[in-house]
Amino acid sequence: MVQRNFMSVSFAALSQNEAFARVAVAAFISQLDITMDELEEIKTVISEAVTNAIIHGYDENPEGVVQISVRIQEDSIDLIVEDNGRGIEDVEQAMQPLYTTKPELERSGMGFTIMENFMDSLEVATVVGKGTTVRLTKRLAFAKALQN
């Protein structure tokens, strides 16, 4: 598969930067012939992954850094959201719908569930005390249509 284009961006782990992340990724992938649904799903997934990094990975410590990488492939978009925060002690538990480590913040615990539902693949690599990497892939509708 030929890589078509890529970008990466790093920013402080501040909640207000979640909107920046959404806009940056949306602007980058807007060069593609994607549906509005695909665009909205990707923006939502970026919001969820970045929010997890900021709130859970760094406990909202603005000295933390969140990195996003996006690769446009021939038939898909690959997204990576990374932090060097606290890591996830139990990934399987964290991926359960409605599970949250921050109920006092009125978190819904649906971040990973949303990511799984909107993307074609989701991989979480984490080391406690070192950070978390979330890898997401979305096959694009035009590519799916070509195979049918």
UniProtKB/TrEMBL annotation:
<dbReference type="GO" id="GO:0004674">
    <property type="term" value="F:protein serine/threonine kinase activity"/>
</dbReference>
<dbReference type="GO" id="GO:0030436">
    <property type="term" value="P:asexual sporulation"/>
</dbReference>
<keyword id="KW-0808">Transferase</keyword>
<dbReference type="GO" id="GO:0106310">
    <property type="term" value="F:protein serine kinase activity"/>
</dbReference>
<keyword id="KW-0067">ATP-binding</keyword>
<dbReference type="InterPro" id="IPR010194">
    <property type="entry name" value="Anti-sigma_F"/>
</dbReference>
<feature type="domain" description="Histidine kinase/HSP90-like ATPase">
    <location>
        <begin position="37"/>
        <end position="142"/>
    </location>
</feature>
<keyword id="KW-0547">Nucleotide-binding</keyword>
<dbReference type="InterPro" id="IPR050267">
    <property type="entry name" value="Anti-sigma-factor_SerPK"/>
</dbReference>
<protein>
    <recommendedName>
        <fullName>Anti-sigma F factor</fullName>
        <ecNumber>2.7.11.1</ecNumber>
    </recommendedName>
</protein>
<dbReference type="GO" id="GO:0030435">
    <property type="term" value="P:sporulation resulting in formation of a cellular spore"/>
</dbReference>
<dbReference type="GO" id="GO:0042174">
    <property type="term" value="P:negative regulation of sporulation resulting in formation of a cellular spore"/>
</dbReference>
<dbReference type="Pfam" id="PF13581">
    <property type="entry name" value="HATPase_c_2"/>
</dbReference>
<keyword id="KW-0749">Sporulation</keyword>
<dbReference type="InterPro" id="IPR036890">
    <property type="entry name" value="HATPase_C_sf"/>
</dbReference>
<keyword id="KW-0418">Kinase</keyword>
<comment type="similarity">
    <text>Belongs to the anti-sigma-factor family.</text>
</comment>
<dbReference type="GO" id="GO:0016989">
    <property type="term" value="F:sigma factor antagonist activity"/>
</dbReference>
<dbReference type="GO" id="GO:0005524">
    <property type="term" value="F:ATP binding"/>
</dbReference>
<dbReference type="InterPro" id="IPR003594">
    <property type="entry name" value="HATPase_dom"/>
</dbReference>
<keyword id="KW-0723">Serine/threonine-protein kinase</keyword>
<comment type="function">
    <text>Binds to sigma F and blocks its ability to form an RNA polymerase holoenzyme (E-sigma F). Phosphorylates SpoIIAA on a serine residue. This phosphorylation may enable SpoIIAA to act as an anti-anti-sigma factor that counteracts SpoIIAB and thus releases sigma F from inhibition.</text>
</comment>
